[in-house]
Predict the structure.
Amino acid sequence: MIEPATMADTTSRNIGPIILLGAPGAGKGTQAKRIAERYGIPQISTGDILRDNVQRGTELGLQAKAIMARGELVPDHLVCDMVAARLRQADCARGFILDGFPRTPAQAGWLDTFFQRELFEKGDGAKPLPIVMRIDVDYNQLLKRLTGRRTCVANGHIYNIYFQPPRVADVCDVDGSQLVIRNDDREEVIRERLKAYDQQTRPVAEYYQQKGRLVSVNGDLPADQVGEQVVREIESHAAAATDGS
Ligand code: AP5
Ligand code: MG
């Protein structure tokens, strides 16, 4: 059992970047929200930011809308510019969780350069190296998770009609808002998203593995148990960083 975080954890620790990799439906968003709450650092979901842009009809949203509806990846330069702007915000100073980024080897290379330039060369105190975790989930389980997902319209709280049902059908437990099916959780789009993952995102894990920076967690377990593995990995990474400094 993982102990709840103390106030000291959430207010003062320098956690650094946490990168969550995993197929569509692996549980990146579910775990990112837990980490964000435990350590008081922001969840940066490129999918959520893009969906918000689509909904608001921004220039970026207009460029991304049709691509996302097909289940394909938005071009690297658009996503990297968007992530750079977000990472420069003040709430990322103690750490942040990247959920769904990087998703191509080009994005991973870009991120390493960005970290080098903007995090490590600024010289204002110790900066923990990123921890890269891949959540591994069986293919058939992914399909069930995606078709069963429901998301709250107000704040993006995540449910599943099979595994994590809300107390009242179609209503968010936390804020009472309506639960909806995500536009790209239709079977034909899910197939394309899984294909994009296989072809373009699997090599990202290999990129980090070759650098000896990839940690895998068993995502087939219930969310609480996956969360325990995730916290254990973050804590041992933080301990190793402290020992090495
Ligand atoms: P994005 O929003 O990132 O979608 P995704 O990668 O397909 O991942 P999901 O959000 O579907 O799954 P998740 O891993 O977050 O799982 P969740 O926690 O919700 O991207 C959407 C689109 O945006 C892309 O297709 C692309 O077009 C574009 N995009 C985004 N980033 C991009 C980038 N970097 N470059 C280019 N394009 C980009 O869980 C899923 C379900 O399972 C839920 O119902 C949940 O309740 C349930 N669940 C979770 N954990 C468990 C568990 N342990 N046991 C049982 N059920 C569980
Ligand atoms: Mg997600």
